Amino acid sequence: MAPSPPPWQLALARLEGALPFLGAEVGQGLALASLRRLWRVHVRDFPQENQGPEHNPGLEAAELTRSWYANERRDFLSWIGRRGSPPLARAARLALAAKGTTESFTSACDPADRALARLDALLPARDPLATLEEWLEQLRDDEIDFLELGSEEVVIEGKVFQRFAARGSAWAASLAAAMRPHVFGLGAAPLALAGLAPRSLFKADLERPLSALLTSAIDAAATDVATDLAAVRTALALGDERLAGLYASSQAPAVWQLILSLGPLTRAELARALDVTRRTASQAAAALDRADLATLRPGDHALAPIAAPRAS
C-alpha cells in the first residue's frame, strides 16, 4: 500500500483544486487577505528600527491598514507591487492608494531581492521541498545576514556583556518565497503563502532537521490560506444576503470586500482605494452599518466589520 502524502501536500492540493472555481470577487478578496497576513508575518520578523518605549508602534502594529509602521508598510507594499504576481501586485497598489502614499524605491528590501533572485534561479521546481531546501541552504551558507545568531558579546567600559544579536533577514526570505506560488505549481494564483521561511530556519544551530522545519512552515502557510479563503467566501456570502433586500450604495459591496479582507479603513481611505468621492464612501459605510455588517470605530473612525450581528 502506497504511503499517504504528507499533510502539506494534501493542503496544497486542496488549494490547487479550488483555484479554478474562484470567482473574481473571491479571488480579489483572497489576494487582499493574503497581503494582510503577509504583513503580520513581516512585522513579526522584521527588525523594525522604531522599537522601544519611545517609539511605541501601537496595539495594531500587525494590522496592515492601521499600523504605525508607515515607512515600513510603504516599502513592503511597493516591493510587492513590483515583484508579486498580478493579483497580489494589484492588491498592494490598492493598499498604497488607500493610504494615500506613492511607491517607494528604497534599498530596504534589497535582501528580499537577493533571496528572490536565488529562488528564481532554481525554478521551475520538480520537487518543491527539495527546491526550497536547496534555496535555504544557499541563504544560510552564502548570505550571512540571513542567519539568526542568538546572542553576542559587547564590551562596555571594560566589562563584557551578553545581549541579543540583531535579527537576521528571515523576513526577506519569507517575503521572497511568498511571491512565488510557482514553486508549488500554483502559477499566478491570487494568494501568498506567508511565513514559509520563519526565523527558526535560520538559527545557527537548528532545533530540528531543516526539512522537518520547512514542512511544518509549508503546512502552516497552506492552512492559513485555506482559512482566509473560507473566511472570505463566508463573509462575501453574508454581505450579499444582508445587502440584497436593502436600498444601498452601489459601492457597498466593494467597501465590504475591502474592510473584511484588507482591514479597517477610514472613509477617506475607502474613497481613495475605490476612486470615488468621500460622500460616496460615507454612503456605502452607512449602508453597511444599516445592514449590521460594519461600524465606525470610535477612536480612529475606521470602518470595521462586525464580528456578529448586533442586537436590535
Question: Would you give an account of this structure?
Answer:
This protein is mainly alpha-helical. The chain has 2 domains: 21-243, no CATH class; 245-312, Winged helix-like DNA-binding domain superfamily/Winged helix DNA-binding domain (Arc Repressor Mutant, subunit A, Orthogonal Bundle). Helix content is 52%, strand content 7%. The protein is built from 11 helices and 5 strands, in the order ααααααββαααβααββ. Strand 4 (294-296) and strand 5 (302-305) form a beta hairpin. Helix 6 crosses helix 8. The termini are far apart. 40% of the residues are buried. The model is unreliable at 308-312 (pLDDT under 50). InterPro entries: WH_DNA-bd_sf (IPR036390).
In brief:
By secondary structure, the chain is mostly helical. It has helices at residues 7-18, 24-45, 70-83, 86-99, 110-120, 128-142, 170-178, 210-244, 252-261, 267-274, 278-290; strands spanning 151-156, 159-164, 265-266, 294-296, 302-305. The chain folds into 2 domains: 21-243, no CATH class; 245-312, Arc Repressor Mutant, subunit A.
List keywords for this structure.
312 residues, Arc Repressor Mutant, subunit A, mainly alpha, 52% helix, disordered C terminus
Low-confidence stretches: 308-312
Order of helices and strands: HHHHHHEEHHHEHHEE
Please state the average pLDDT score. 89
Topology, number of strands? 5
Give the strand line-up of the largest sheet.
Answer: 3-5-4
Total domain count: 2
Provide the structure class. Answer: mainly alpha
**Rg from Cα:** 21 Å
Q: Main β-sheet: number of strands, strand sense, barrel status?
A: 3 strands, antiparallel
Q: What share of the residues lie within helices?
A: 40-55%
State the helix count. 11
InterPro entries: WH_DNA-bd_sf
